[in-house]
Amino acid sequence: MQTFIQLVVDGLSTGSIYAALALAIVLVNQATGLINFAQGGIAVLSAYIAYQFTVWGLPLILAILASVVVSFFIGAFIERYLMRRFEKGDPDTAVVVTIGLLTLITGICAWIWSYNNLQFPSLFPLDTVTILGAVVSVRSLGTIFVIVVIMLILQGLFVGTKLGLALRAVAINPESASFSGLKVGRLLMVGWGLAAALGAVAGAMVAPQLTLTPGMMDGALVYALAAVIIGGLSSPLGAVVAAWLIGVLENLAAVYVPFIGYDLRIAVPFILLFIVLILRPQGLFGRKVVVRV
Description:
mainly alpha
């Protein structure tokens, strides 16, 4: 039982990292209708910015908050001066642009800070607590708590605020939104900026658990995309639940399913992905899209 609880809590902690990126992807999709593959690169750049602030002597919490603010403007800048040129064209072209942007940002991080592993300080203490006999790190619990708070904020943003409804309207039909008086360009910038700020939070949580390198988010991005598809592109709650489900099932399968083990546990989220796509293509919490012809 102790081992099971340990695996579940560790899975929730790992899943929370995937969830942070997944929420950013959902946010961009809700604001623009695009899948942003560059989100992992933006999170890495934000983590390096926070690291640089700590090098300059800023306390960690202030460094992270400063990186969130800087990342917001970076995201808005990317939308205004790069992505806007492609948003009215073929959506596939815009998606390819985000893939190229991921490569570019990763290269810029390597050029400025090199490929050497850097130690990023942890926002939470490295102490442990005992829950039903299982030893759980405070950092894991803190990571889970942060993701729950962000999820609730985003869910409330999209459902209960004028800004969230305006972002959704722009993503669904920018022309109609413009005729309704909404400032489409400004809203698109806000959507990208918020997603980049959320990526900064993801980077700050991932970097202490790994080491700060230009490619540290590559694996997490794959899991985050799987979580978004499983949970539903339109649901922040679905993205978080799916990310937690991936993290927990991956840990449990590695220990309790002999033929999977640690070597094949990466297949678990993709098996889950195939099952969800067959049974519920819109995702566990997604909405069916009805097109009138």
